[in-house]
Amino acid sequence: METPQFMNDKDTTPTIPAQDAPATGQAPWWLRLSLLFSLLALLLLGWHWLDSRQRDMQLELNLGRRLAEFEAHSKESGILARQTQETVREAQAKLDLLAQKMAESESHQLAVEELYQQMSRNRDEWVLSEIEQMLLIANQQLQLAGNVQGALIALQTAESRLQRMDQPQFFTLRKAINKDIEQLQALPQIDLAGLNLRLDSMAAEVEHLPLLPGRVSGTGKPAPRQPQPESFWLRLREEAWEDFKQLVRIQNLEKSELPLLPPEQAYFLRENLRLRLLSARLALLQRNEASYKADIKAAEDWLNRYFDTSDKSVHVALNHIKQLGQSRLSIDLPDISASLNAARTFKLGREKAGK
């Protein structure tokens, strides 16, 4: 490249070389360069426009696809929303129904609780009535019949009934019942059943006890019946004579020996002794100690007086009679009305509280 020549400071007009002067009819180089750059710029703008167009089209396609997907999702969301609303409505209806059933259940529960309380009160009243009846029976058995065992059984039954309930409000009543039970258990035991069986056995053995020898007249068999006369007047005379002999009896009262007994009177003697033993048995059941001892004493005297005491069976019977005569029937009975009064007081208090 050639170095441009500069003029002196005095010459301000540059000198253009002859060889660098533009040719005639050609554009300057800078113009061509500008056109080239313009063409390149146009190409770049076109390429950029095409690329932007393609991008816009691709964006439109993507946006359309996204919009389609969004619409599909929106439809699905709408369907799900409607299903959810239906489910919510069904759940709300179920909740309303459940709330209604819960309200009904609560009302039923309140009614059941009230019924249970009423039944509990009625049950307590029934139990108290049963206990009062049992205690009344115990008092009647003890005071009227003197039956200690029966009264004890009634009291123990009442205590067992209260024990099964296991309620603290019955503690005072149970305490009174247990106190009465202890009083009855402390009494001496009287074997009424054993005494009754012994008297019954002796009454059955009277038939086999031998009488004193020589106390029964004749052979012990009834005399044969004499043939009656055929004439009416003869029969009347015989019957009158027999009646007269029965009215008149000659006996020596100065002697202490017992008179002879005819066979029929020996039979009545045994029957009277049996009746004495049965009368003692009845007095035993009635707990009439005076009558019991009187009958036992009479039976013992008759055994000693009319029966053969040397015989073993009579001797055993006398021993039994003496043991029976020593038995005690009457005892000092305690007062067991405290439990009955406690039951009535407790029942009256509950009735007042219920009112």
Features:
355 residues, mainly alpha, Four Helix Bundle (Hemerythrin (Met), subunit A), disordered N terminus
What can be said about this structure in brief?
The protein is an all-alpha fold.
Beta-strand residue percentage = under 5%
Sheet with the most strands, sense and barrel status: none
Number of strands: 0
- Helical content stands at over 70%
Q: Can you count the helices? A: 9
Q: What structural class is derived from the secondary structure elements?
A: mainly alpha
Q: Quaternary arrangement of the chains shown? A: single chain
Order of helices and strands: HHHHHHHHH
Which geometry do the CA atoms define?
rod-shaped
Mean pLDDT: 77
State the distance separating the first and last CA atoms: 139 Å
The low-confidence parts are 1-24, 217-224, 251-257
State Rg. 69 Å
How would you describe the overall organization of this protein?
By secondary structure, the chain is mainly alpha-helical. The protein is 71% helix and 0% strand. It has 9 helices and no strands. The chain is rod-shaped.
Topology:
Layout: H1 29-143, H2 148-165, H3 171-185, H4 192-205, H5 232-247, H6 263-285, H7 289-306, H8 312-326, H9 337-354
